[in-house]
Amino acid sequence: MHVLMVAAENDALPNAKVGGVADVIRDCPRALSKAGLSVDVVIPDYGFAALERVHLGQLSVPFAGQIHHVDAWQLNVADKSVRQIVLSHHYFNQHNGQVYCNDAPGRPFATDAIKFALFSAAVCEGLLQGIIPAPDVIHLHDWHSACVAVLLKFDSRFAHYFNTKLVYTVHNLALQGIRPFKGDDSSLEAWFPSLGYDGQVLCDPRYPHCFNPMRSAINLADKVHLVSPTYANEVLCPSDPMNGFFGGEGLEQDLQNAQAANKLVGILNGCEYDSKTSNSAPTLASLYQEINTELFKWMAKTQQVESGFYIAHQRILQFMQHESTGPLITSVGRLTEQKVLLLHQAYQGVCVIDELCSQLASYQGRMIILGSGDEALEQTFVQAMARNSNLLYLRGYGQKIGELLYQLGDLFLMPSSFEPCGISQMLAMREGQPCLVHQVGGLKDTIKHLENGFSFSADSLQSQCENLVNCFADTLEVQQNNLQLWQKIVSNALNSRFTWHDAAKKYIADLYQQ
């Protein structure tokens, strides 16, 4: 069986990772290959010119009223089990190789939607012209590749692929790539002016004049894959953000229809366990030094030192000068409302994050949060760091810092408001670090309270905040005063396994063969 995976990210290639989908596109194809499948992966070329490559051919792609020339390359990478294909066009690397762009308010996704629509069109042309080998299964990931489904199902030029099995994975339902049908240079009819389509299948249910790529792919695919069993159930219910529940995000009816048609499948993502990050035992001193070094690199990027970096540097010097005897709480991930909504809610006159730091201080503990994202949230956590002498917030990402935090932390904090699958909790557990999580999505499927970690749940935003605070207090109490239970939980976390080998078997049986 030959599978073509189409995605925006791929951590098998340098600087092509933003979120967890990149880990999936790196690891899942290898597991499928080990199971006997032939797998090709195609993503846009964000600037991989330095990599050894073979030119597969040039594609002539009708797009936005013009013929665009897109070059297809096969990259020569160390792992030969998966063919890595990239498509080159100046649209794909015009923003200094960034995978995604941030558009001005009022035109969400506009720049990226143009880029990924052209990419999708080029994938279809590659299939048509035989430059991309014809697969038995086309596996699309998130909204960025959804136009592949639209073109294969509605453009008669691609009729040969109309019945090719189409699988669509939803990694994050909150990001749907919604754009107008027409009247904008970033709209479906601007990209594909001669395309005949069924607007009832492609439109956004809340904004019928808009094209919703994610809804389109859900409706057009033969199988729809959610990245954990619990998340596959959650998305069948309407979101209720005022009460802290994030479910179908307006697409619950389409997902219910998919379930009724036996199209909806929940399969948990996997984690790699055969590649330990380091052979030497890490130390807090090495972590602090790595943070100090990385902070200087971040500060050097601008002429004026930003307050967040200055406070963080002062804090790391404080940490280096004064040894801590208490627990180290860690958190690694994108700073978005999905991840940290609960941490900046009000709790008894302060923010939840302040209450957690106060509790932690009573045990002489420290908290280190690594991650960038929403600018307003970044500033919120900079201000929280200024208020709490045991909190260090690092606004950025350093691979080595992340690895050391997974290895050295006593407790990993991940109170996401929703989490389709999550990889950070798996990485922390792989290093023997228990996690405290909100019992949603993949977190519920991987963390069992007082078995291999700690979890809380509630059906209102206020109750979620209260239960998070109480669970944190209980966890610190166990860590400090119930060594036998703590060691059992640490051991269970270390020995928990969520393998790509198991996931690949389910992909083949439930997505590709059914």
Structure notes:
The chain is an alpha/beta fold and 514 residues long. The chain folds into two domains: 2-270 and 501-512, Glycogen Phosphorylase B (Rossmann fold), CATH 3.40.50.2000; 284-496, 3-Layer(aba) Sandwich (Rossmann fold), CATH 3.40.50. It has helices spanning 20-34, 110-128, 146-154, 188-191, 199-202, 213-220, 229-234, 252-260, 284-299, 307-321, 337-340, 352-361, 375-387, 399-408, 424-430, 441-446, 461-481, 483-495, 500-512; strands at residues 2-6, 38-44, 53-63, 66-75, 83-88, 137-141, 165-170, 179-180, 210-211, 223-226, 264-266, 328-332, 346-347, 350-351, 366-370, 391-394, 411-414, 435-438, 454-456. The chain has a nine-stranded mixed β-sheet, with helices on both faces. Strands 16-15-12-17-18-19 form a six-stranded parallel β-sheet, sandwiched between helices. The protein is globular. The two termini are 13 Å apart. The model has no long low-confidence stretch (mean pLDDT 96).
